[in-house]
Design a protein that fits this description.
This protein is an alpha/beta fold. The chain is built from 19 helices and 18 strands. β4, α4 and β5 form a beta-alpha-beta unit.
């Protein structure tokens, strides 16, 4: 008996990637992020069920109501389920209620969603006998205690770490109040992701979220980006510009890498935090910021205060609501759940069928110290998925530096990771020669550049300064063609 086809109509990629795992193979899940894409898909595949995600509906819900009516009229035989926010617009709720369609309001979890989908699914499969315990003896036991969860409109953060559970609980409380929040964590630990989640669980979630990476801007442009400027205030100011503090309206602003701000910029930021007031560059007009500030740093700010690089008054103002995001190596119980989530997500995205994941892959992931944290894990899993050709994902699909444990440096110079330098003794015998080590380095450089350029061979060849033919030959040599 073939499985029913269920289409998830949502911009929430995480929901679409998690649903196949929640269904345990009871349905073929397809993801569409627009009604037009769903119409195109239905030309060659008829859905038996549609999950319509309207959690981002506008205050009136008119557009979502029209979309719902199209779903009812175009696919009358398909079973529908609807996701909405806690405060569902009246027009949409009236249509959904009239059609007697199951609705999940607010937080979406496995149990509530499966209950809404029960009419779409076939009978519950018989229980499968668990494999012998010895087959997974080398993996840590699964933590059966409740997860720490923070759920927003389009994203969700879960952890089994007792330390991080309390951080998420405290963040959820702080997010509901009009306060400035400081996030401290290494590169790739999830500061930007958590910042968006803080915005989504706050009363400001229907207003803009505006991130600004302070470290990516020259010092003389940071003030213009934050406060705006008036025409003629400096050489390239050919017109008035609205800064982030005004453009965000009553939403949220993330100031990442706050530690790079100079003393004068720190003074102005402290004034905004205390009073909300500021002047655009070159203007005498005082404006008021109504947005919430979320500031983040890769480094702890206290040593910077002691070194005279950060103002004590700003530090004590920010430190009142400081949240430290532990690096991934300090919460190893989250590595396997995160890896499973990324495997499902990228298998769906790249159309790679994966029927089994070997424990050797998880064991290798657990032994690596992850200086790049969750972001590095995500990229490594994506690389493994796209090179999986036999439907079985194993350690052989991981990059060589993961298998050898040769970790790069963290952004915190005080942290020294085990295996942070690659020595010939760490390499397999066939790679210990000079030529083998050069080839290994060349392969990793090509892989990283391909990832950076979304696997565009033209852009990768251009960045590496080689021709596309040379790049193709090297990819063929290292078994990287797909």
């Amino acid at each position: 008996m073939s499985h029913p086809v269920i289409v998830v109509l949502s911009r929430d990629q995480q929901l679409a990637s998690e649903l196949p795992g929640w269904l345990h193979g009871r349905a073929d899940v397809r993801a569409c992020d627009s009604l037009e894409e769903l119409i195109d898909l239905s030309r060659w595949l008829e859905p038996q069920g549609i999950v319509a995600d309207f959690r981002r509906a506008g205050p009136a819900g008119v557009h979502e109501q029209r979309t719902f009516d199209v779903l009812l009229g175009r696919w009358p035989s398909a079973k529908l389920a609807v996701l909405t926010s806690d405060e569902c617009p009246e027009a949409l709720e009236r249509s959904v209620t009239s059609a007697q369609v199951p609705v999940v309001k607010g937080r979406v979890d496995r149990q509530r969603l499966l209950h809404a989908l029960q009419d779409m699914l076939g009978p519950e499969p018989e229980a499968v006998v668990a494999p012998p315990a010895s087959s997974a003896a080398h993996l840590p036991a699964v933590d059966e205690s409740p997860l720490g969860v923070l759920t927003g409109i389009s994203r969700r953060f879960e952890t089994s770490s007792s330390q991080f559970k309390q951080v998420l609980a405290d963040l959820e409380v702080a997010a509901r109040h009009d306060v400035t929040i400081l996030l401290i964590g290494e590169t790739g630990a999830g500061k930007t992701y958590l910042s968006r989640l803080i915005h989504e669980v706050s009363p400001r979630r229907h207003e803009p979220f505006m991130p600004l990476a302070c470290g990516a801007l020259p010092a003389d442009l940071i003030e213009s980006e934050l406060f705006g400027h008036v025409k003629g205030s400096f050489t390239s100011a050919h017109a008035d510009k609205e800064g982030k503090f005004i453009a965000a309206r009553r939403g949220s602003i993330l100031l990442d890498e706050i530690d790079v701000l100079g003393p004068e910029q720190q003074v102005k930021l402290l004034r905004v935090i205390e009073t909300g007031e500021f002047e655009p560059v070159g203007s005498n007009q005082t404006l008021r910021c109504q947005a919430r500030l979320i500031v983040a740093s890769n480094l702890d700010l206290q040593p910077l205060v002691e070194q005279g690089r950060f103002r004590p008054d700003l530090y004590y103002r920010l430190n009142m609501l400081k949240f430290v995001i532990p690096p991934l190596r300090h919460r190893k119980m989250d590595i396997i759940p995160l890896a499973r989530k990324f495997i499902a997500q990228f298998a769906l995205k790249h159309g790679v069928p994966i029927e089994h994941t070997d424990n050797s892959l998880f064991q290798s992931l657990l032994e690596y110290p992850w200086p790049g944290n969750v972001r590095e894990l995500e990229h490594v899993v994506q690389r493994a998925v796209i090179y999986c050709r036999d439907r079985v994902l194993s350690a052989q699909h991981l990059p060589p530096h993961i298998l050898s444990g040769a970790a790069g440096p963290t952004n915190d110079p005080t942290v020294v990771l085990p295996g942070s330098s690659l020595t010939p003794a760490m390499l397999p015998p066939e790679n210990r020669s000079l030529g083998g080590q050069i080839a290994l380095t060349e392969k990793e450089i090509i892989e990283q550049t391909l990832f950076k350029n979304s696997f565009s061979r033209t852009k990768t060849a251009c960045e590496l300064g080689i021709s596309r033919v040379t790049l193709y030959n090297k990819m063929k040599k290292y078994g990287m063609l797909r």
